[in-house]
Amino acid sequence: MWPPIVRARAGRASLIATFILRTTSSVSPLSCRESPDGYAMARPPARMPDAPRQPSDPASVYEDFRRDIMPYPMNTTHPRFWAWYMGSGTVMGALADFLASALNPNVGGINHVAPLVEKQVIDWTLEMVGFPADSSGLLTSGCSAANLIGLAVARNVKAGYDVRREGLQGAKTFLGLTLETQRDVLLFLVEEHMSREILETIGRAGEFEQRPGSGIAFQIDVEDAVGVSHQVSELKAVVEEEI
Q1: Residue 104 in 3-state DSSP?
Q2: 20 to 30 Å CA-CA from 224: which of 14, 52, 164, 215?
């Protein structure tokens, strides 16, 4: 047996829910009895009440609801509200919301019953749609959140790398250098006897050893090349002097 105060409050909640459902569902046709503009006309910004500094009387708040909110519903509680993605409001739906709001759980974890209830509902859904029993799911606040989570899951699965660790654009490197930004590549064709000295000079000028990641320099033997004969004749004397 519930205590008297609990019975009284539960009875009042039942009366309010019944009043809301009966009032809105009796509207015919499905459109609102009054234009929502009436709310703006009744409460223009200049006459909007200031934010309350103290708790308000519940009866006064409910009267505000009846006067300023109830006349302008979307009418989802109407028995013939079938046209959009949400269905009609029901007494059991209102009761379920009431009970859930009373518990106000966080289902992100911790050892309590709410995550188990969520898992049970997900398991029922998997069975109804024919998904494998080891599939997973998540209850969301609505379709928009579900679509966003679905896109995130598809991105994570199909990206081919750890998106949470490497970001939307997976870091790509070549010999320790990131390729995310533009890089300049300089090629020098030099005489083999002078290649080591030139390589070290480039390294010192670029401070490649002092600043890791700033650049690299390496040499590759070239067996043959065309288009450099005019340079060979000019450099021949210089190379002979250096050697």
Answers
A1: coil
A2: 215
Is 200 contained in some domain?
Answer: yes
Residue type, 102: A
Q: How many structural domains comprise the chain?
A: 1
Q: Enter the DSSP assignment of 68.
A: I
In-domain check, residue 233: yes
Q: Is residue 209 part of a domain?
A: yes
Q: Which domain holds residue 214?
A: 173-242
The string of DSSP letters for 108-163 reads TSSSSSHHHHHHHHHHHHHHHHT--TT------SSHHHHHHHHHHHHHHHHSSS-H
Residue 79, preceding peptide bond in cis (omega within 30° of 0): no
Structure tokens, 29: 């046709």
> To which H or E segment does residue 60 belong?
helix 58-64
> Which residues, at least 6 apart from 112, have a Cβ–Cβ distance to it below 8 Å?
105
**Is residue 191 in a domain?**
yes
> In whole angstroms, how far apart are CA 37 and each of 44, 65, 81, 212?
10, 16, 22, 65
